[in-house]
Design a protein that fits this description.
Mean pLDDT: 86
CATH architecture of the largest domain: Sandwich
CATH class of the largest domain: Mainly Beta
Distance between the termini: 14 Å
Number of helices: 1
Helix content: 10-25%
Oligomer: single chain
CATH topology of the largest domain: Jelly Rolls
Largest sheet: 6 strands, antiparallel
Low-confidence stretches: none
Order of helices and strands: HEEEEEEEEEEE
Length: 159
């Protein structure tokens, strides 16, 4: 159920059950359970120096034309004792980078020590979106070698 802006009422105006249900009851339900998409992903090994998907496309329907809070977190590591590697994480909204740079929205490094992890997190608030179906996708890339990205969770919440 979508949030609907309540109408302004005048003194002495009769409020019917239908108006009450739309202005109050439906809006409380919409605020209590906003659209949410969440997934736990797992580990993806990345060798590409250009951005490749870390997860399948996740979608959210922004029924009210609000903003969407995107959160992803996990860690990156090497497991073969190879030298230090840099890694980058990018978030795309509707096929466009939220920060158009080859450095991504997050960048970090992993040491050459096997299984020493580097945590990372993405927290992104969109601008107000049109009431429609919007897609969000998480990408990763490395400067060389193989870096494993463990994505603990990736979720979007209309706020």
């Amino acid at each position: 159920m979508a949030y609907v802006n309540p109408a302004n009422r005048s003194a002495g105006e009769l409020i019917t059950a239908a108006r009450w249900n739309q202005d109050v009851v439906a809006n409380i339900k919409a605020l209590k359970s906003p659209p949410l998409t969440r997934t736990s992903v797992g580990t993806v090994a990345v060798t590409s120096t250009t951005f490749v998907p870390l997860v399948e496309t996740q979608n959210i329907i922004t029924t009210t034309g609000g903003r969407v809070l995107c959160v992803a977190y996990g860690h990156s590591y090497v497991d073969d004792g190879s030298g230090p590697q840099r890694f980058f994480v990018q978030l795309q909204q509707d096929g466009n980078d939220v920060i158009p740079t080859n450095e991504g929205i997050v960048n970090g490094a992993v040491t050459g020590v096997s299984f020493q992890t580097t945590p990372w997190a993405v927290i992104w608030m969109t601008s107000t979106l049109t009431p429609a179906f919007h897609t969000f996708r998480l990408y990763g890339r490395v400067t060389g070698g193989t870096v494993k990205f463990w994505v603990a969770q990736f979720w979007m919440l209309e706020v």
